[in-house]
Amino acid sequence: MGKLFVSMKVFPSDVNIDLEGLKERIKQALPESASMRKIQEEPVAFGLVALILHIVIPEEESGIMDLLEDRIKSVEGVSQVETLAMGRI
Q1: Is the pLDDT of residue 73 over 90?
Q2: CA atoms within 13 A on the CB side of 18
């Protein structure tokens, strides 16, 4: 059973958003088979801070990347999601 390591950048919808609350909502929205390994904050511009998510997902599960992106995009306070990197572990 192979696993994939995925790095994603999440842009919040507002500079004044509670980042800790957003992190918790994202964690709760992940598919059951996904595991959050780390969340980093990355300053972007004009006070906007993006979140860099490091997530492990099963390689065999069909459509898991689409499901993962859809779940994160549906979280209140998320404006945009971008996949930065993906690889086998």
Answers
A1: yes
A2: 5
